[in-house]
Design a protein that fits this description.
- By secondary structure, this protein is of the alpha+beta class.
- The chain has 2 domains: 226 residues, D-Maltodextrin-Binding Protein, domain 2 (3-Layer(aba) Sandwich); 185 residues, D-Maltodextrin-Binding Protein, domain 2, CATH 3.40.190.
- Strands 2-1-3-13-4 form a 5-stranded mixed beta sheet, with helices on both faces. A 4-stranded mixed beta sheet has the order 6-9-5-10.
- Strand 7 and strand 8 form a beta hairpin.
- The protein is globular and about 75 Å long.
- Bound molecules: calcium ion (CA).
- Calcium ion (CA) binds next to loops.
Length: 497
């Protein structure tokens, strides 16, 4: 009832000056100096972390705050969020699951603070990955911290035991990749006397081709050339990558049904010992390692390795992921003044300390995990009622993790390699898509994007499998241009700042 009243009051006041406290406005610095943090977070089970849960109390100590959660169920998150945005009743700190058109419209209408020029003042927030900032920006401005994910995530998973036999234990170049795939296909790497293995498995998902395109300097969807945005299909690197793929295909080094193979069974051939490589997010290597160990532990110990990328004559590059799964924004209804906004940023900054990140990630020290020799060790044998995931449900939904400050776990060899790809590889080799945020507000892309993407994808597959030659490819790209591609190029270039 109280909530309804507040909501009605706020709605009456919309458009006028909001002088009264709305639903989520209890964020003023309090007399005792402890920050009253109002937080919108998301529950998946409907049984989120309790107000007196130890992890929450510890977090309050670390951040010098009292945290008041507003819980929204994941199942009706968008409806609830839209209602709260419309009524101006958001808490100060808001977990947003994505940049939906509705969120973007509300950002443009001023519902959230522009923090572009603020984050440099905070110890952790200023370390936010610049590619992620680019990807999250609306009209060139930043309106929230990423719910960050690994930007460096793509890698090459391969049979190192076979690669040792081939004399290339760790491939460094695209030529090394070619020679490995050739060996895996033609030299009986599993030693059973039968030609029953091949190089690399692909599926209909075009991620591998896009990763290879960055290897050859073809960019990530769009490139900036001579001050203009150009679709990556029109780069030499894109053509070089297609020719590399075409060679692999024509020599039988990749599965010939890749264009129709379902993504769900993508890893089956490497998981069963038939193929020797695939390129995807590096964390898949753990599943492949596990699958092979289950087949034969002795035979497959140390058989699977993962590395981040290889160099081509164009240089050393890799394809990043977008680097976030939604964002944490500061609403103007919950944080009314610049000071309120800065206090909320300070709170979010403190949630990135090692102690706070460990609470989000593992739970309470001494209860859910211990730190042993500098590593986090999760406690085992906890009941469902005690397990950190259950006790702290929904707690980490406003975790931003803009730096990697969490205490690491002591990892198995393969998990350590995945970790190294994600956190220790050179971020400088990741190729950003300069136009990634444009599709959010593009009229042409909204109308024609899916048709254009289909033309582009089909033509690439046809070229790789030899159905069309280079002239055919150029004809398909002319079709792409006339079907709206040229309009898209013009529109994106007009959005250039
Ligand atoms: Ca064989």
């Amino acid at each position: 009832m109280k909530r309804t009243m507040v909501l009605l009051l706020s709605m009456c006041l919309m458009g006028g000056t909001l002088l009264f406290a709305g639903g989520g406005s209890q964020n003023k610095g309090s007399a005792d100096g402890v920050y009253d943090a109002t937080v919108l977070s998301i529950t998946f089970t409907g049984q989120p972390i309790a107000d007196n849960a130890q992890a929450k109390l510890e977090m309050e100590k670390i951040t010098n705050s009292r945290i008041k959660f507003t819980w929204v169920s994941n199942s009706n998150y968008e409806d609830k969020l839209n209602t709260m945005m419309a009524s101006g009743s958001l808490p100060a700190v808001v977990a947003l699951t994505g940049l939906t058109p509705s969120v973007i419209n509300n950002i443009r209408a001023g519902a959230f603070w522009d923090i572009t020029d603020e984050i440099k003042n905070y110890e952790y927030l200023k370390q936010t990955n610049p590619i992620t900032i680019n990807n999250l920006s609306i009209d060139g401005r930043l309106y929230g911290l990423p719910r960050a994910r690994q930007v460096a995530r793509n890698g090459i998973t391969y049979r190192r035991d076979w690669a040792i036999k081939a004399g290339i234990p760790e491939p460094k170049t695209t030529d090394d990749i070619y020679r490995l795939l050739k060996y895996f296909t033609e030299n009986d790497p599993d030693g059973n006397g039968i030609k029953d293995t091949y190089g690399m498995t692909w599926c209909k998902y075009d991620g591998p081709l896009d990763i290879i395109t960055t290897w050859f300097g073809g960019g990530n969807q769009w490139v900036e050339q001579n001050g203009k945005y150009v679709p990556y299909m029109f780069t030499q690197g894109y053509l070089d990558a297609m020719n590399f793929a075409k060679r692999l295909y024509s020599e039988g080094l990749i599965n010939d049904d890749f264009a129709s193979r379902d993504t769900a069974i993508w890893a089956d051939d490497i998981n069963s010992g038939r193929s020797g490589m695939y390129i995807d997010v590096a964390d898949q290597a753990q599943r492949t390692d596990n699958a092979l160990l289950q087949l034969d532990t002795a035979k497959y110990t140390d058989a699977i390795w993962v590395i981040n990328s290889v160099s081509s004559p164009a240089g050393l590059f890799n394809l990043p992921t977008v680097g976030y799964s939604g964002l944490v924004a500061i609403s103007k209804s919950g944080a009314k003044t610049v000071e309120d906004m800065r206090r909320a940023l300070q709170f979010i900054d403190r949630t990135n300390t090692t102690e706070a990140m460990n609470l989000f990630t593992y739970g309470v020290p001494g209860v859910h995990f211990d730190i042993v020799d500098g590593y986090a060790v999760r406690r085992t044998g906890l009941s469902d009622a005690e397990a950190a995931n259950n006790v702290n449900e929904g707690f980490n939904q406003f975790m931003t993790s803009v730096t990697n400050s969490t205490t690491p776990e002591k990892l198995s060899r393969i998990r350590q390699q995945v970790y190294d790809v994600q956190y220790k590889s050179d971020m400088g080799i990741l190729v950003a898509n300069p136009c990634i945020t444009f599709s959010n507000s593009s009229k042409v892309y909204t109308e024609k994007g899916s048709d254009l993407d289909t033309i582009r994808r089909d033509a690439r597959v046809q070229y790789v499998v030899g159905q069309i030659n280079e002239a055919g490819w150029r004809a398909a790209m002319n079709t792409w241009l006339s079907a709206g591609g040229q309009a898209l190029i013009d529109e994106y270039n007009s959005m250039k700042k």
